[in-house]
Amino acid sequence: MYLSSKEGNLSYEITLANSDYIWIWDEFEGSPGDLPGNDIANWGNSLGPYHNRTELVSKLNSLETNFPGLVDISDIGTSYQGNNISLVIITNETSEKFKKEFFLVAHHHARESITIENALYFIDKIVYDFTNGDEEIQEMLNERTIYVVPSLNIDSLDILHLWPEMRKNYHPIDEDGDGIEDENEIITGVDFDDPDETIAEDKPGGVDLNRNYAYQWDYPFGNSDNVTHDTYRGEEPFSEPETLALANFVRQHYFQAAVSLHSGVELIITPWSYDSSYSCPDEEIYDDLGNELALLTGFTHEYLYPCAGEWGDWIYSARGIVSVTLETFHGDDWTYLWDGFNPHANGVISNCQNIVYPGLLYMATYDCPDLAINPSENISSIISEPEPTGKTGFNVIFVIPSFLSFIIIILLVRKRKK
Q1: For 168-203, how does the pLDDT look when each residue is reduced to its tens digit (9 = 90+)?
Q2: Angle CA(240)–CA(113)–CA(251) in degrees, nearest 5?
Q3: Number of folded domains in the chain?
Q4: Shortest CA distance to 121 belongs to which of 355, 352, 329?
Q5: Which residues of 148-181 are buried (b: 16+ CB within 10 A; e: fewer)?
Q6: By Cβ atoms counted within 10 A, which residue in 8, 99, 111, 131 is the most buried?
C-alpha cells in the first residue's frame, strides 16, 4: 500500500507492507492482574505479557519488515554477554530535508521492565498514527528522526524471572570474595564448590549502569565503589560495554532532547542529579520543561536522591543536550520488589497510554533553546542546522580552512616579491 504524507506544497509517498504486525495494545489484551509473589516469577523465561529478549528482537524485526521506509532496526553495540543492544530509527525516509533528532533510552535497571513496554508503546503509537493519517505525527516524522533504545540492560531479560530483584547489568562479579563468580547458582539452584553452604550469595549482575557515566563518577555521594552494593559504579567510567556503546552513539548526534525511562517512583528528574546543592546553569529552562511535563503526565518535577555518574548529568554536561529522566511507575504494594517497580500486566497499557506517552510525544517535538552549559566534550563536528546554501556541516568545516590557506599563500608570495 502507499501512504501519502503532505507538508505544505510537498507530498511524500511511502510504501508499506501488507501489515501482519501485532500492536502492543493487542499483545497485552486480556492480560492478568496480580499473581502470587513477583508476577514475573510465575511466567518463567517468557516473562508473560512482558517482552523477553527474544520477543523484543522479534517485535522489532517485524516492525522493520512491515513498515519499510518508516522504521529501520540497527544497534548501538553489544552488551557484556554479547547481545546486540537494539536501536529503532523512525522517520519518513522519503522526506530528505534536514531533520532534527530525539533520543529515548529505556531499561538501565534490570527490574524496571515497564520502561521497555513504555518505549515499545511509544514506537507503536507513532507508527500506527503515521500510517493512519495523523497529520501531527506525519509532520513530526517528515521533520524529525526518532531514535529509541528499548532495552539498554538487554542481558538481564534472560534471567530476570529467576532473580526479579536484579538491578545491575549481567556482569558476573565475585561479590562475596570467595574466589568464585557464582551467579550460576541462581540459575541451577545448586551450591558450587566454595567455602560456604549458601546458595546464590552472589546476586547476578555487577554494575549499576546508571552510575557508570563519566560525569561526577567518583563523587563521594550517590554511588558506591563496593561491588556488593546496588549502586556499584564499576571500575571506571564507561567500564561497561552498554554505557560505552550508548555514549559513543550519542557522540555521533546532536539531539534536541534526550529522555531516559526508569521506574520505582513517578517523577520528572533533571540535572543536577549528583548533588541538589549545586544549581544547574540552565535551571530556568529545566523548570519550565518540568512544569510542562508535570501537566502532561501528572508526575512532579523534583529531586529524588544523590545519583552520581548518572546518564542525564553526563549527556547534558558533556554534550550540551537537554536531558530528562522520567520515572514512570510506583507500585502501591512493595511486598514483592519487582511488583513495586512494575504494574500488573493488565495495567501496562493504561500506564503507557495515559501517563507516559503524552510526555514522550512532547519531548519528541521539543526544540532545544540556547543553553548556558559549556559542554565538556568537543561537539564542534556535530552540526545542528544546515547552511542556507544547502551545504552540509562537512562542507563548511573544510571550506573555511581552505579559504584561510589561500590567503596565507597570497601573503607569502607578496612577501617574497618584496
Answers
A1: 999 988 776 666 665 556 555 555 555 555 555 566
A2: 40
A3: 2
A4: 352
A5: bbbbbbbbbbbbbbbbbbbbbbbbbbebbeeebe
A6: 111
